[in-house]
Amino acid sequence: MNVDQVNLPNVDLNLLKIFVTIMNEKSITGAGTRLGLTQSATSNALNRLRAHCQDPLFVRTSTGMEPTPFAAELFDPVSAALETIRQTFEQRTTFEPVTSTRTFRIIQNNFGELQLLPSLVERLQSQAPHVKIVSLTMAREHYREALEDSTADLGVGRLPPGQFVQRHLYEDSLVCLMRREHPIGDEMTLERFLSTPQLAFSETFQSELLVRRALLKKASERAIAMKVSSTASVADVLARTDLIAAVPARWFKGLHNRDAFRAVPLPFETERIHSHVFWHERNHHDPGHRWLRNQIAELFVDQE
Question: With 46 labelled, which of 86, 186, 194, 283 sits at a CA distance of 20 to 30 A?
Answer without folding.
Answer: 86
